[in-house]
Amino acid sequence: MKASEMRELSVEELQAKLKSLKEELFNLRFQLAINQLDNPMRIKAVKKDIARVQTVLTQMENSDNA
User: Fold this and answer.
1) What's the CATH number of domain 3-65, 1.20.59.10, 3.30.565.10, 2.40.70.10, 1.10.287.310?
2) Please, what is the average pLDDT of the chain?
3) Total-model pTM
4) Engineered SS bond to 32: which of 36, 37, 60, 64, CB 3.0-4.6 Å?
């Protein structure tokens, strides 16, 4: 998901998305540990998505405070 698409979501939706991405990352790491991970590049992609969501949330908080 692109950052521009994330900016259109509400704070609650972004927080829910962040929670689901963190759960997915946990599951991917677990699969990696037991050698059942099909696509190891997915871990990197999920980490970047988490960073994007956190960045958009921070920008929203800063714009509300200004």
Assistant:
1) 1.10.287.310
2) 93
3) 0.90
4) 37
